[in-house]
Design brief:
By secondary structure, this protein is of the alpha/beta class. The protein has 16 helices and 15 strands. The chain has one domain: Alpha-Beta Barrel (TIM Barrel). The radius of gyration is 21 Å and the shape is globular. The N and C termini lie close together (8 Å).
Length: 407
């Protein structure tokens, strides 16, 4: 099982844009220290729900600050991005990061973004498949041209070519031999960065000491945390799927799915069944299906505490106000009013569906989803408290106390 952190760069009430972005950067380095597999970055425009407008640009910075962890976009919104420009960015990040970049793409929503960037509602309602095919052609080809309703241009050379071998990681003065060998600090080292007196300040910080995580220790208390070698053929691409048409689009192109936070296990099973049906209808083989199904990603929420009630209370304290503040700021492209979920009811739903509770309960929740659905990759929202220090502590506990129980 591979567990990563999903980072919205969310601006909670009372925070600045810079504080939200700094929390994302600190959370990424904390996730690498804690042994998480990946971080996933969201992309939004004009709303405090997420203050990162370009997930690929932020991914570039975070790939430069880390050495092992994977960095993915969740998602880069195709209707407001030129597919060739996004393909160039993805190839650049794939080649220069040692294959640590994953490009997640999606349709986004019918927001005013479509007007601001000049693509229009058609790019959202009709144009996604054409944009996706152009992007995939760019990532997999050597020369690409276009002759469609949205894009028309003669063949040009693909530079840099994503299918070339990735560049090896280089040691830096900051990392030295440890960085070159892929050595990372034990996740419990991050936990010890929080003095005990912090835990006495309130119910959110009761954890005293994490148990040691088993692992292959090296010199100086470090543990080797390897990443799989990058495969050929350019950066991995996943596609956000929330509807039958999206599932069909992904299956027909052989792309793994990224499933949303609102989906419970039964919803996931329905989408996976629809994916398999569309895959077979497209004439694709069973062996490749088995490989791709190992790459589906499920988004969720994670909050770890000594008591389940405290973990839930932490999210119910912060997330309803954030949802009202962030989601309520969306403006539709046609100016029509959009009905928003009840913020508290939505937070309650997320707490019910996802790993929110004690370390054992969080591990059991992830294992149950894996058993019921077959999904083995997770992108978990870890900043639901809205607080920087609590977020970093949550990530450290996820790595030190939950991951070892997943096998």
């Amino acid at each position: 099982m591979r567990v990563g952190a999903f980072l919205l760069s969310a601006q909670f009430p009372g925070q600045t844009h810079g504080q939200a972005l700094e929390r994302t950067m600190s959370a990424t380095t904390a996730a690498e220290r804690s042994g998480l597999d990946s971080v996933w970055l969201a992309e939004h425009h004009f709303v405090p729900y997420g203050v990162c407008p370009d997930a690929a640009t932020l991914a570039a910075m975070l790939l430069g600050r880390t050495r092992r962890i994977g960095v993915g976009t969740a998602v880069s919104v195709l209707p407001t991005n030129h597919p060739v420009r996004l393909g160039e960015q993805a190839a650049l990040l794939h080649l220069t990061s040692g294959g640590r970049f994953t490009l997640g793409v999606g349709r986004g929503g019918p927001w005013i973004d479509l007007t601001v960037f000049g693509t229009g509602l058609d790019a959202y309602e009709q144009g996604f498949p054409e944009r996706l095919d152009l992007l995939l052609g760019w990532l997999r080809g050597a020369r690409v041209g276009a002759d469609g309703p949205q894009f028309r241009f003669p063949e040009v050379d693909v530079v840099p070519r994503a299918t070339e071998p990735v560049l090896p990681a280089e040691p830096t003065g900051r990392d030295g031999l440890a960085g070159w060998l892929g050595l990372e600090e034990e996740p419990e080292a991050a936990l010890r960065a929080f003095p005990r007196q912090r835990h006495e300040q309130g119910p959110r910080q009761r954890h005293e000491q994490a148990p040691l995580r088993p692992g292959r220790a090296g010199r100086g208390g470090h543990r080797v945390v390897p990443r799989p070698a990058p495969g050929p053929g350019g950066p991995p691409v996943v596609m956000a799927c929330t509807s039958p048409s999206g599932v069909r689009t992904a299956a027909e192109r052989g792309l793994p799915m990224l499933l949303g936070m609102h989906s419970g296990d039964e919803d996931k099973k329905e989408l996976l069944a629809a994916y398999r049906a569309a895959w077979r209808a497209a004439g694709r083989g069973e062996e490749q299906l088995a490989r791709v199904e190992r790459e589906h990603v499920a988004a969720g929420v994670a909050q770890v505490d000594d008591r389940a009630a405290d973990a839930r209370a932490e999210l119910l304290r912060a997330m309803p106000g954030f949802f009202a503040h962030g989601l309520g700021a969306h403006r539709t492209v046609d100016g029509q009013e959009r009905r928003m979920r009840d913020p508290r009811a939505y937070t309650e739903l997320l707490c019910d569906l996802h790993p929110v509770g004690t370390p054992r309960q969080c591990a059991d929740r992830l294992l149950a989803t894996a058993e019921r659905t077959g999904i083995r990759r997770f992108a978990l929202l870890t900043e639901g408290s809205g607080d920087r220090e609590t977020t970093l502590h949550n990530i450290a506990r996820l790595g030190a106390e939950v991951l070892p129980q997943l096998g």
